[in-house]
Amino acid sequence: MIRVAIIGATGAVGEALVRILLGHPEAELAFLGSDHAAGEPIDRVLPVLRGQLATACRKPDLEAIAAEADVVFLAKKGPDSMEWAPRLLDAGLKVIDCGGEFRFRDAAVYERFYGHTHTCPQLLAEAVFGLPELYREPIRNARLVGNPGCYPASAILPLAPLLAAGAIAPTGIVVDAYSGLSGAGKQYSAKARNLFLDCNENCRAYGPLTHRHAPEIEQELAAAAGEEATVAFVPHLIPIDRGILTTLFADLTAPASTSDIVAIWRAAYADEPFVRIVDEVGDVTLAEVHRTNYCDFAAVADPRTAKVVIVSALDNVIKGACGMAVQSMNLMFGIPETTGLLFRCV
Hints:
alpha/beta, Rossmann fold, Dihydrodipicolinate Reductase, domain 2, 2 domains, six-stranded parallel β-sheet, 33% helix, globular
């Protein structure tokens, strides 16, 4: 049994982790860490858990976590993760960070886009980007995993094999993405323009060309292409609770049909349990991935413009966050990757 600690157990990602792991046959929720809810039963803080889990939240404590857990999910954003990760690793624990602190190979890129000094840059060379479809073997042997962002997962999964095959150009890629409101998390949503009256019957772009997920996408696409990659990334908010629908535009490097694109995907993802290649772009919908760990995508190649258009969909809370993190945990502990994730989650 894998003994799990969650630091930040009452936030949006923490709550989803708790709910997934409650149904995980190989995991035990050993430590639920929360600064503001310490001493409170988790089902009082998160009423959705009534009748399922009444364990008390505790103030995060290194000695207790080290004694009671095998792996720690850091479900807090910002500098807290940089404070905790090295201490947890020194205590012999495995760490999966659900924030952005260990996704980048270059601390300067993190500091530019996140606005914080990276206090443990020595760990960036060790941290593994937690996208199992691309980094399965490194994840198996990792002590520290930096879980990808939700938008990046929706773009990297369909684009990486095409770049690796040389089918599309690594520059001039457009990422046009639409997310449900849960992507902002609980605290940010409360203070930002995410109230029902602002968002219902509405749609707006935010952070065009400057969003912090853009360099994360470029980093991984460059790794796939073997050369510099550039993207123009524009995210949008739409009035739904869950899901990300992303439309990608890329230049073909040589004449290619839709069938050629699909053949590359099928070769790359033939054995992937959570990637589904769809025949028609119009059949890629948020409803089909809602509350699952799947990423669906389809393409149409256009000889007239020498471009390929790709549409992808995933649930930002599951495949875009905690489901992907649990997928990595399963790999790190040598159990089947799909454990606890094959059915609709939370």
